[in-house]
């Protein structure tokens, strides 16, 4: 998979197309991470989430609702957001790494997966879904 740097980040839009943000790969504490910058907010996700989510979506075999939520909000079961924080995923919990900024997995990871050719993502005003390619 392609890995972009801080000097050459992916320039992405949220699924509804309402916000732009950037992502790149970095290393923190010996772990590869995705750095997601939305305005002045910086979020970190484990880089392995891309392969893990793709594998899960391949097994799922159909469209899955994104269900993006902040860390402090409960996520809807059966959504990408819920899977990204579930004890049933491969890391047994959050892919987000910054306390109080671990959510929004279902908002920021799917467009990157689409850009990498790993998934199809809907681009409606709300209730978007994704599926593996």
Strand order of the largest sheet: 1-2-3-4
What class do helices, strands and sheet pairing give? alpha+beta
Radius of gyration: 13 Å
Beta-strand content bin: 25-35%
Biggest pleated-sheet summary: 4 strands, antiparallel
State mean pLDDT (0 to 100 scale). 97
Tell how many strands the DSSP assignment holds. Answer: 7
- The low-confidence parts are none
Q: Estimate the helix proportion, in percent.
A: 10-25%
**Please, how many helices?**
3
Distance between the termini: 14 Å
Shape: globular
Order of helices and strands: EEEEHEHHEE
| Total number of domains | 1
Task: Describe, in short, the structure shown.
The protein is built from 3 helices and 7 strands.
Describe the fold and architecture.
With 133 residues, this protein is an alpha+beta fold. It has one domain. 20% of the residues lie in helices and 27% in strands. The protein has a 4-stranded antiparallel β-sheet, with helices on one face.
């Amino acid at each position: 998979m392609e890995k972009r740097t801080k000097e050459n980040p992916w320039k992405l839009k949220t699924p509804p197309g309402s916000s732009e943000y950037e992502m790149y790969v970095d290393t923190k504490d010996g772990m590869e991470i995705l750095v997601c910058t939305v305005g002045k907010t910086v979020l970190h996700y484990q880089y392995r989430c891309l392969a893990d989510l793709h594998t899960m979506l391949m097994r799922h075999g159909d469209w899955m609702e994104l269900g993006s939520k902040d860390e402090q909000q409960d996520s809807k079961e059966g959504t990408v957001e819920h899977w990204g924080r579930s004890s049933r995923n491969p890391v047994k919990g959050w892919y987000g790494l910054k306390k109080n900024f671990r959510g929004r997995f279902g908002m920021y990871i799917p467009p990157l997966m689409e850009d990498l050719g790993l998934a199809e993502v809907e681009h409606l005003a709300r209730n978007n879904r994704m599926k593996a390619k």
